[in-house]
């Protein structure tokens, strides 16, 4: 049966159906690897005009390509007389096509038919030859997706070989879905989910969030268990005031509001604050919303507590955002660490005497976590760490030697893993 042709064309030639999302995935890959854009931000422009199903498919192709790219490149290079240059289109197209064949299980004829229109001339023959060889020789991906070498070396030095192996395991598939609840849920309604902590359940991969029970009622929101820890450490608000800094898209804001805090949520991004507002509306929680850059914002008065979820490298959420490990280098980590130090010092001035400051980053870099707190305490000797107690944490997590919290990829590995976070709770001087 001949391949169906699509309306999309280049140079007057019609293309096989399904080429458009592959072309969008190619644009996405270029945005991440050449321009250093975040995948979720680049997706808006790269998938413009596509129907929702094609948009989702394009993002899935790009995501799996980035997740398995180190191993896909090894397969490509093993089959060519000399390595293809990093920036040639044939390598990019082969990456996308092999991710479809080997990770997504797409039909081989559709993969080949939609890959060839993405290249021209001699490179087209090369792409066709290597895809044919991949099928003939039954190429396979390893059991664990290899981390980029620079990341693997950095994490090996920081956390050891066992954590690197756990990170590779966690990176090899999209993570499950975690839900945080505003109140204790009816356990009978979530019999197929796993309870990880009070008001927190984990579902298997593939669940459509909008179709889950209670979505429109707003009793829960999507939030990884590790991301729920910072707000947990502030406990019940009982009407006290808290600044949630860098608050969007609002998971911690909703947690704090549901726990009885009077929340002021501050973020610099109008677009992300729109999402926070929508989330508050759906979950029927309330907070004062402020669009401002906290490097220049000044509150009218101090708060009982401050939660600073600081801008960071986001290397701890690599399972959900496989682009991050291909974009972040030592230079960005150093720059972000400097920004975090500035924001932490400003946030400290907004805490009432004796109040709490929770600092958090979704990073696996010590410079953005443990080292950041040591530098802050050296510069602010009147402040102290308020040690986290084991009973304040999910059972899979324990305080570290400083009394802070460090989550690592090996935690909860048997049920889908955990994002990498660092969390410290600090106490302001009483006077």
Give the class from helix and strand content and strand pairing.
Answer: alpha/beta
Q: What is the mean predicted local confidence, pLDDT?
A: 93
Helix content: 40-55%
Order of helices and strands: EEHHHHHHHHHEEEEHEHEHEEHHEHEEE
The number of helical elements comes to: 15
Question: How would you describe this protein?
Answer:
The protein has 431 residues and is an alpha/beta fold. It contains 15 helices and 14 strands. The strands form three sheets. Strands 7, 8, 9, 10, 11, 12, 13 and 14 form an eight-stranded mixed sheet that branches. It has helices at residues 19-33, 39-46, 52-67, 69-78, 89-104, 108-115, 122-136, 149-159, 161-171, 225-232, 251-258, 270-283, 324-327, 330-348, 370-379; strands spanning 5-10, 13-16, 177-181, 194-197, 200-203, 220-222, 241-245, 262-267, 288-291, 303-309, 351-361, 384-385, 405-407, 421-427. Helix 1 (19-33) crosses helix 2 (39-46), helix 5 (89-104) packs antiparallel against helix 6 and helix 10 (225-232) packs across helix 11 (251-258). The model is unreliable at 1-12 (pLDDT under 50). The protein is globular and about 75 Å long. The longest helix has 19 residues, at 330-348.
Structure in a nutshell:
The chain has 431 residues and is of the alpha/beta class. The chain has helices at residues 19-33, 39-46, 52-67, 69-78, 89-104, 108-115, 122-136, 149-159, 161-171, 225-232, 251-258, 270-283, 324-327, 330-348, 370-379, and strands at 5-10, 13-16, 177-181, 194-197, 200-203, 220-222, 241-245, 262-267, 288-291, 303-309, 351-361, 384-385, 405-407, 421-427. The strands form three sheets. Strands 7, 8, 9, 10, 11, 12, 13 and 14 form an eight-stranded mixed β-sheet that branches. Strands 4-5-3-6 form a four-stranded antiparallel β-sheet, covered by helices on one side.
